[in-house]
């Protein structure tokens, strides 16, 4: 007789244990079901909702498997002793997964609050249930591991509660009194559940602890423009960061904080102005030292070789250039706060080389309409005055077009623009090559991500990007990396192209094009510079005369499919007058009282019925010429036969003339 063969009465204790496990499961196996139902009902949509739902679903499945494993072990023991017991099914129906993905779309705060309360109950109940289950399994002589798993699920639920409750409180009433942004709602509620939290999450944690190198890596990642969710995650991280930690980062690395997309505009302005003042003072002190050294070297007071003298002169020249850049930025900021304009905000600053900056008239976080202007060829930081003035003029015109709409006009110069003295045939820096535009598209896309992320949702804002000259190539490439999420509309003026074949390829709701008939740069879209690069030198080669332009279809071409607004022609002057071109028209789209400026103001304000548009000609089929009396009618044929057009005949003279 087998030692495990026993009378039925020997299994009674195990059967009672199995019944207790089933009762415990009935009370607790659905502890996370309500949370799954809330998520399935779109209590929170987009942002980190999908990853959080997945994590909670995994914990729910782990809980149910633990109870099923516990019951299965006892059932196996009963059968081994000759009894009868079928492993029970202790799972509950799984609610449908949420259907929305991508960026933040909405949240039901009341439903989320109830979910947090349910998680709190699960956090208390499951560890207790795990203790009871452990006792039952031990008495039945089977592994107590399932009980540990039940307790672990409870610990996970409890671990969510304190953080979620704190975040919900912040979301409903932020300490600074401002409304919560969509980024905070989308990513701040469940910070660890944002897509791919690994590397970026580690950088944010290190930066919060004061690691400025981590902050520098975050800025580098945003400038690559590869992660469309990064600015939203930065926004949530920054706004939920302890105020003392924010202050430390601003004091330690103001330029990095000021450059970080996702940080509120007012904070970026404060940090960048602090950096501007620091650099102004530091450069002045360093130049004083270098000039004394240079004079001593020149007089032979200090012995030096040629290399040391040249090195000193180069450093002096670079610092003097940065002084000019600081002066240009200071003068540009002074254009705000006058004649009804709002104060200017400094949203980005990089000194040295050609330099980079972003300046806004009005706070883009609070505006109903935000227009971002991207300048073109020849742009430098020390020469930004004219371009910043145009951004101010756009604010003036858009505000006149819609006086009750809060507008922000941003000048963005965050890329290396081609310079005319760099040589037109150099593939890496030529104005006839898309290379620099491709490099600048990532930073522009990241900057727009930041404007979306920090905008305080008081309504539905209108985002416009205006690309001028080569800046329209940058804007066109950036738009194609963020289809449907870059901007609501593009305005292209003096544009040679966007690297798109049709307006629909840009992924925005509307594309508007303004082109002066005398603008030679805009007509680069017609030039045959698409023959590729020489395999050895890398320079651009000419193509066939009728080939496409170097930047895709000319936006002013009807085939491109954009809305075209009227730009008044101007009187041609200068040495190019005989060609019909005038280079001055390339910068004349913002001229006071011009129809192009009025049209741009109406577009930015969304008053499309006021825009003076160029008509789109309808294609009229060419009539088939009638045969002359001396020609017999053509016979039907499967192949078309070209018939000669009849010679024009003079009209008969009316009687009396």
Helix and strand arrangement:
Layout: H1 12-28, H2 33-40, E1 44-45, H3 49-80, E2 106-107, H4 109-139, H5 145-172, H6 182-188, H7 197-208, H8 212-224, H9 230-239, H10 243-252, H11 254-259, H12 265-299, H13 306-333, E3 344-350, E4 356-361, E5 369-374, H14 385-401, E6 407-413, H15 435-454, E7 462-468, H16 470-481, E8 489-493, E9 510-514, E10 563-564, H17 595-605
Parallel strand pairs: 5-6, 5-7, 7-8, 8-9, 9-10
Antiparallel strand pairs: 1-2, 3-4, 4-6
Helix pairs in contact: 1-3, 1-4, 2-3, 3-5, 4-5, 6-9, 7-8, 9-15, 12-13, 14-17, 15-16
Provide the CATH topology of the largest domain: Rossmann fold
Our measurement of the CA-to-CA distance between the termini, rounded to an integer number of angstroms, reads 135 Å
CATH architecture of the largest domain: 3-Layer(aba) Sandwich
Order of helices and strands: HHEHEHHHHHHHHHHEEEHEHEHEEEH
Determine the number of helices (DSSP H or I, runs of at least 4 residues): 17
Strand order of the largest sheet: 3-4-6-5-7-8-9-10
Estimate nothing, just give the exact number of structural domains. 3
Poorly predicted residue ranges: 1-9, 98-104, 528-548, 578-582, 619-657
InterPro entries: AB_hydrolase_fold (IPR029058), DUF1023 (IPR010427)
Biased composition (Pro residues): 618-635, 643-657
Region (Disordered): 613-657
Protein name: PHD/YefM family antitoxin component YafN of YafNO toxin-antitoxin module
């Amino acid at each position: 007789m087998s030692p495990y063969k026993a009378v039925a009465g020997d299994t009674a204790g195990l059967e009672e244990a199995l019944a207790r496990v089933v009762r415990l499961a009935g009370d607790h196996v659905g502890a996370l079901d309500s949370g799954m139902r809330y998520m399935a009902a779109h209590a929170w949509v987009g942002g980190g909702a999908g990853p959080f739902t997945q994590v909670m679903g995994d914990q729910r499945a782990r809980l149910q498997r633990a109870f099923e494993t516990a019951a299965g072990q006892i059932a196996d023991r009963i059968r081994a002793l000759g009894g009868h017991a079928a492993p029970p099914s202790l799972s509950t129906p799984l609610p449908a997964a949420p259907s929305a993905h991508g960026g933040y779309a909405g949240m039901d705060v009341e439903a989320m609050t109830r979910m947090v309360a349910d998680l709190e109950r699960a956090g208390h109940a499951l560890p207790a249930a795990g203790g009871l289950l452990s006792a039952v399994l031990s008495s039945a002589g089977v592994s107590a591991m399932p009980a540990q798993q039940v307790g672990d699920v409870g610990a996970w639920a409890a671990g969510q509660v304190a953080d979620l409750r704190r975040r919900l409180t912040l979301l409903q009433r932020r300490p600074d009194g401002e409304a919560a942004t969509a980024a905070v709602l989308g990513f701040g509620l469940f910070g660890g559940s944002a897509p791919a939290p690994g590397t970026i999450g580690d950088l944010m944690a290190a930066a919060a602890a004061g690691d400025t190198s981590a902050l520098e890596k975050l800025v580098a990642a945003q400038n690559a423009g590869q992660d469309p969710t990064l600015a939203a995650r930065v926004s949530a991280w920054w706004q939920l960061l302890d105020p003392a930690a924010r202050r430390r980062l601003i004091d330690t690395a103001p330029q990095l904080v000021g450059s970080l997309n996702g940080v509120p505009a007012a904070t970026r302005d404060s940090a960048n102005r602090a950096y501007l003042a620091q650099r102004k003072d530091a450069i002045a002190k360093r130049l004083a030292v270098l000039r004394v050294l240079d004079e001593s070297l020149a007089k032979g007071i200090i012995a030096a070789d040629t290399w040391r003298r040249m090195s000193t002169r180069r450093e002096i020249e670079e610092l003097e250039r940065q002084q000019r850049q600081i002066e240009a930025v200071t003068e540009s900021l002074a254009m705000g706060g006058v004649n009804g304009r709002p104060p200017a905000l400094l949203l980005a600053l990089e000194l040295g080389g050609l330099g980079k900056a972003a300046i806004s008239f009005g706070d883009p976080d609070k505006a109903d309409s935000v227009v971002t202007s991207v300048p073109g060829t020849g742009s430098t930081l020390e020469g930004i005055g004219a371009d910043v003035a145009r951004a101010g003029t756009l604010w003036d015109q858009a505000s006149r077009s819609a006086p009750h709409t809060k507008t922000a006009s941003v000048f963005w110069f965050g890329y290396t623009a081609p310079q005319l003295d760099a040589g037109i045939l150099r593939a890496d820096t030529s104005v006839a090559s898309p290379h620099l535009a491709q490099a600048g598209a990532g930073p522009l896309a990241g900057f727009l991500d930041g404007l979306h992320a920090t905008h305080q949702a008081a309504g539905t804002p209108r985002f416009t990007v205006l690309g001028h000259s080569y800046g329209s190539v940058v804007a066109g490439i950036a738009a194609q990396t963020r289809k449907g999420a870059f901007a609501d509309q593009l305005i292209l003026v003096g544009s040679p192209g966007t690297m798109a074949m049709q307006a629909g390829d840009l992924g925005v709701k509307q594309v508007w094009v303004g082109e002066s008939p005398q603008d030679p740069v805009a007509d680069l879209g017609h030039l045959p510079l698409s023959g590729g690069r020489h395999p050895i030198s890398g320079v651009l080669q000419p193509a066939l005369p009728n080939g496409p332009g170097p930047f895709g279809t000319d936006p002013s071409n009807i085939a491109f499919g954009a809305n075209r607004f009227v730009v008044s022609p101007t009187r041609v002057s200068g040495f190019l007058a005989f060609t019909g071109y005038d280079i001055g028209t390339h910068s004349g789209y913002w001229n006071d009282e011009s129809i192009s400026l009025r049209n741009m103001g109406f577009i930015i304000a969304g008053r499309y019925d006021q825009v003076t548009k160029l008509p789109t000609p309808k294609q009229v089929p060419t009539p088939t010429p009638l045969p002359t009396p001396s020609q017999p009618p053509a016979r039907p044929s499967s192949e078309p036969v070209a018939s000669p057009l009849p010679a024009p005949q003079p009209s008969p003279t009316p009687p009396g003339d």
